[in-house]
Design a protein that fits this description.
Blueprint lengths: L8 H19 L8 E3 L24 H4 L7 E4 L3 H12 L7 E4 L8 H4 L11 H4 L3 H4 L10 H14 L6 E2 L2 E9 L4 E8 L7 E7 L1 E4 L8 E3 L10 E4 L5 H4 L15 E5 L3 H13 L2 E6 L5 E2 L8 H8 L5 H10 L24 H4 L11 H26 L3 H6 L12 E2 L3 H4 L5 E5 L7 E2 L3 E3 L4 E3 L2 E4 L11 H4 L3 E3 L6 H8 L3 E2 L3 E2 L2 E5 L12 H23 L5 E4 L1 H13 L26 H10 L6 H14 L5 E4 L1
Parallel strand pairs: 2-3, 2-8, 3-4, 5-20, 8-23, 10-19, 11-12, 11-19, 12-15, 13-14
Antiparallel strand pairs: 1-9, 5-6, 6-7, 16-17, 17-18, 21-22, 22-23, 24-25
Keywords: FAD, Flavoprotein, NADP, Oxidoreductase
Family: Belongs to the FAD-binding monooxygenase family.
Cofactor: FAD
Length: 636
């Protein structure tokens, strides 16, 4: 029942909200995020992190050969698009490409697009917005939603165009960063683990470091009893094994699945793309669902180059204007008169709850009325998506189980035209666990509390470590020690960050951050990263001018950082709309709701700019326009 016949939209929204609460309660688990296994922290599950692509990549240079003098000017941690954007913006600010080194534990550029190469992979953000630097490269995306392979190839194109293709130090991880106040530089311990060789440790120095480690870096597994007892083929979707399935990233013909019983665990945005391909080839496919995805239509299409140049790339600054228009649709107030992107994201008004909203509540007392408004605005969309399931899926029971009972903002929306029809195939079974997840595994089966299913191949599409918690040090599994030896992990855990604009922390000079803490957010995450990359490059260039060629430390003053934290806190009420959501990585599996008041206050001060990305951009661009770097100190 969708309550569509109720007398008022507000009443319908209230009744639906009650249903949402009931479904959320079924999925809450007392262990919260600890129900998952963080593979990077578990030696027993380390094999799930093996790099399946490094043998096909170009030969990886030794870290020692990349640091002939054990130094570089700018050290960037991460070779995904974030790391590339920091390199590009630093180059634009005057840093020579040869003075940059990009440290990356993978064997190539791309970040999440390096690791994830599963069949059906594409971006869910329109490519004309998502792929950065399109205006600068003149590149025309092949499709409205670029494939993973195209995106990875584009990352390599960017690296070549800006002269940093040879600056990468692959298969290498920064284990420790220590600030040297006297020398005004960072000492960094690097460990390179090339395939088939002994690990090599190298200590290097760099005056400036940027931490750009991404938000989907460390895959996780469900803590299901018997996981290591399973004797069939098994892997995580972020380390797809085409040796088991057949096919390749370029040709997803999964011929080795013929005659095989396959189970995929998870029904989030990743599984939505994979499931149709598995179903085409497997003898039988079991889709294990804890919480259904809200799957809207995608409307994929090829890019007509003539149309692109006539309707999209129309004038200088076109991509920034397109992104601004995209962001302007995430508001509870009047939408812009023209929708340049015109996709299902721009109809998902409820995403303001995570994107931030300048028209949102100014105090926590205004939050209940705001929540009612959000539910009223969101109900038509979610009702339409639930109705879409009924229209597409033939079996009424399966259709009911595939309906998502939570508001749009509680989980990342999914978009696909083939996922739902897949459940009409006779060789596909939805294993709905009603929020509980799998009960256990045996040597040859998956099992719920009531039934067992023998399977030959088991695939975990169970996502990644919660991306918006912890410090940059935790996100990178790295120790970062700043002024007076202060540990970033400990400092942020007890007091939160002390940044200005989310770009620099007062306790960690010359260390440029990439958000989202004390910065902002967009569904197109690369826009956030690029905004901070430009901001960081500006600060570095201005600090160099002030220093006049002498070594220096640049960081916000303690007073400026404290003031910025208060500004973030004052704008935090709109972000409280995430309270009461169904468990997901957005709310750390419900753990945020259960935090004590003092922890809630710390999270609000440490979190996102609650008035939205364009409001944030206005603040930081206005600050740069003033000149003088108000609140930033350059110590010689």
């Amino acid at each position: 029942m969708d309550y569509q016949d109720d007398t008022t939209p507000a009443l319908a929204a209230l009744q639906t909200s009650n249903r949402y609460s009931a479904e959320r309660t079924k999925r809450l688990r007392p262990e919260g995020d600890s129900q998952f296994i963080d593979i990077s922290l578990s030696t027993k599950h380390a094999s799930f992190l093996d790099d399946p692509w490094v043998s096909t990549a170009a030969p990886v240079k030794t870290a020692r050969s990349q640091f002939p003098t054990n130094r570089c000017e700018v050290l960037i941690l991460g070779a995904g698009f974030g790391g590339l954007l920091y390199a590009v913006r630093m180059i634009e600010a005057g840093v020579r490409p040869e003075d940059i080194r990009i440290v990356e534990r993978a064997g190539g550029f791309g970040g999440t697009w390096y690791w994830n190469r599963y069949p059906g992979l594409s971006c869910d953000i329109e490519s004309y917005c998502y792929l950065p630097l399109l205006e600068e490269t003149g590149y025309v995306p092949r499709q409205r939603y670029s494939s993973g392979e195209e995106i990875r190839e584009y990352a390599e194109l960017v690296a070549r165009k800006w002269g940093v293709a040879d600056s990468a130090v692959f298969q290498t991880k920064a284990e420790e960063l220590v600030w040297d106040e006297g020398a005004k530089e960072w000492e960094v311990e690097l460990v390179q683990q090339r395939k088939g060789e002994q690990a090599e440790t190298l200590r290097v120095r760099a005056p400036f470091v940027a931490t750009v480690n991404g938000v989907l870096s460390w895959p996780k597994l469900p803590g299901v009893p018997g996981l290591l007892d399973y004797e069939g083929e098994v892997f995580h979707s972020s380390r797809w094994d085409y040796g088991i399935t057949g096919g390749s990233p370029e040709d997803p013909s999964l011929t080795k699945l013929e005659g095989k019983r396959v189970a995929i665990v998870g029904t989030g945005a990743t599984a939505v793309q994979i499931v149709p391909h598995l179903a085409r080839w497997a003898k039988h496919l079991y889709v294990v669902q804890r919480t259904p995805a809200a799957v809207d239509q995608r409307d994929q299409r090829e890019t007509d180059p003539e149309w692109f140049h006539k309707e999209v790339a129309t004038s200088a600054g076109w991509q920034r204007e397109r992104l601004k228009n995209f962001h302007q649709h995430f508001t509870t107030e009047k939408q812009p008169p023209i929708n340049l992107v015109d996709d299902q994201w721009t109809s998902a008004v409820g995403m303001v709850a995570i994107a931030g909203n300048a028209a949102g509540p100014k105090t926590m007392e205004e939050l209940p009325a705001y929540m009612q408004k959000l539910h009223t605005l969101d109900l038509p969309r979610q009702s339409r998506i639930r109705k879409r399931v009924e229209d597409v899926v033939s079996d009424p029971t399966t259709a009911k189980q595939l309906q998502a009972w939570y508001p749009t903002w509680c989980k990342r929306p999914a978009f696909h035209d083939e996922y739902l029809p897949t459940f009409n195939r006779p060789n596909v079974t939805l294993v709905d666990t009603d929020g509980a997840g799998l009960d256990h595994l045996t040597k040859d089966s998956i099992a719920t509390t009531t039934e067992s299913y023998p399977v030959d191949i088991l695939i975990f599409a169970t996502g990644f470590r919660a991306p918006f918690t912890g410090s940059p040090a935790q996100k990178a599994n790295t120790s970062i020690l700043g002024r007076a030896g202060v540990s970033m992990h400990d400092k942020w855990a007890s007091e939160g960050p002390s940044t200005l604009h989310g770009a620099l922390d007062a306790n960690f000079p010359n260390l440029f951050l990439s958000g989202p803490w004390q910065a902002s957010n967009s569904p197109n995450y690369l826009f956030n990263v690029d905004a901070l990359a430009k901001h960081s490059a500006y600060i570095l260039a201005q600090a160099k001018r002030k220093a006049g060629g002498r070594p220096f430390a640049v960081a916000p003053t303690a007073a400026a950082a404290q003031d910025w934290g208060m500004q973030v806190l004052m704008r935090s009420p709109p972000m409280a709309a995430l309270a009461g959501c169904t468990p997901s990585y957005f709310n750390v599996e419900g753990g945020i709701d259960g935090a004590p008041p003092e922890a809630q206050m710390l999270m609000a001060r440490s979190g996102l700019w609650g008035h939205g990305i364009e409001d944030f951009m206005g603040v930081v661009e206005g600050w740069r326009g003033e000149g003088g770097m108000r609140g930033v100190e350059v110590r010689i």
